[in-house]
Structure formats: C-alpha cells, structure tokens
Amino acid sequence: MATRRDFLIQSAIFSAGTVLLPSCALAPGAKGGLGVQLYTFRDEMAKDAIGTLKKIAEIGIKKIETARSGKGHYYGLSPKEMKTVCTDLGMSLVSGHVHLDKNFDKTVEEAVESGQEYLICSTMPTRGQTVDNYKSVAEAFNKAGEKCEKMGIHFGYHNHEYEYESDNGQILYDVLMDNTQPDLVHMELDLGWVIVAGKDPIDYFKKYEGRFPLWHLKDMDMAHKESTEFGKGGLDIPLMMANQKLSGVKHIFIEQEEYAGAPIDSMIHNLAFMDKL
C-alpha cells in the first residue's frame, strides 16, 4: 500500500523531472541522516505542533532541532511530551535553540527532561561588535558550557552574518573561536550565513578542524541575502558534504527561512536534492 511519504516523494520526482532514490533522510557521515531546524516550520509548529511533526516524519526526517517560540522551547508541549512525540514518530530530539539569559538554569533543566544532546545559544547574549565584547561573551559561553556538561548536555553557539565583521583587524567570530574551550563550547556552523558574510566554510573547517559538530545546511540567494531551496543559491553543497570529516560534523540540520511555496514542499525539494548527491 502506498504511504503518504511515497506520494510526497513521487510528487517531488514528478515536479523535478529527476530520478530519486528512496533514501532522502540519509547523508554520508552524518549520524542517523539529515535533520531539520524547526524554525523552518515556525508558523505550522505554532498552530499544530504534533500534526506538523507527523508531516515532517512522513517525508523521512529523522532528527529534530527546536527553536525558541512564543509558546516556549517546545511549542506548548512539555519537554517530556516533545521527547515522547518525536520517539513515537521515529525521530530523535537532538538539539534546541535557546537564549543565554536569566532563565538559563531552567532551560538546562528542560533540556535534560527532553533527553536532547545539545543546547545551542541562537544569538549574542550581549550586543557590541568589539573584540572586548566577544571575549566577554566567550567567557560567558565557557561558563555555560561547564554548567551544561555537569548536567550531561553539550552547549554551543549558532552564528549569523554579523559575527564575521572585524574590529581592530580581527574577525569577531575568530575571537569567539579562539577564546572558547572546544570541550565546553560546541559550534553549530550556519553555512549559509558564512557565505553571505563573504567567507568560505572550508577555511574555517581547516583553521578550526573538528570544532563544528553541528551544521545548518542552508542555501542562500546571494542577491537578496535570504535562504532558498537547495541548488538555487550560492552554497556549494557537494563540496560541503565532501568535507564533513574535516569539520567534525555529527548532526546536519536543514534550515530554510524563506520559501517559494509551502515549507513542506521546499523540504521535499531539499531532500530530493540531497538524494542526488
């Protein structure tokens, strides 16, 4: 009997006019295949978290990374409920985007309850594009990482474009890398924002080998500086995938913030693109 997943994949094949193998959830070198950052489905998750997770599971996604929302870190579900729903759907809750703020202790406790492996700070806790501020933030990240490690969680940081600005001749992201402890601060590299900033992810893989256990795989429309479907932007995805070992990546999350149509259609396209690799 044909399943909804079969129907969706066959539809993607018909639309693209390509031959697609039924392994779209898998990526060489990334443990357990590809995941998705749920910010991709932010509106849908806010309206119907469980129903949206079911649709994501049906197209073959195996890993989930949450994003802070108006309903909390788990879209109105408790941490245990989120874990149970993902498990029942054959997915694993691996990571979550949070803020490093006054409620961070509670955030860590929730992450422990959810069973997730990583807590990723999604934005600079203090703004200021100076070397001194980034050194201060690095110290705060080291302390947060130590707190998380004691609770069995890995702490990390997700970059944007602005971290690649310079102050006094120093790239601020490099200041952050040079002043954080690799065993306490685990970097999630957003490959799309790296190229928008005019940098090459491969250069960072080489300079900080093995320090990027998580990726956001995001193709970018370079003219508009916004995300797009795989193969339509400026990221050399095959080259990135060929350098997984150098980066140290363990978990790859697809993220797309803007779409040509519905988010689920963009995700099906992206999975089909990855299959052709």
From TrEMBL:
InterPro entries: IolE/XylAMocC-like (IPR050312), TAT_signal (IPR006311), Xyl_isomerase-like_sf (IPR036237), Xyl_isomerase-like_TIM-brl (IPR013022)
Cited SUPFAM superfamilies: Xylose isomerase-like (SSF51658)
PROSITE patterns hit by this protein: TAT (PS51318)
GO molecular function, one term: isomerase activity
Domain Xylose isomerase-like TIM barrel, first and last residues per copy: 54-274
Name used for this protein in its record: Sugar phosphate isomerase/epimerase
Keywords tagged on the record: Isomerase
Keyword hit for Isomerase: yes
Segments forming a coiled coil: none
Domain of life of the source: Bacteria
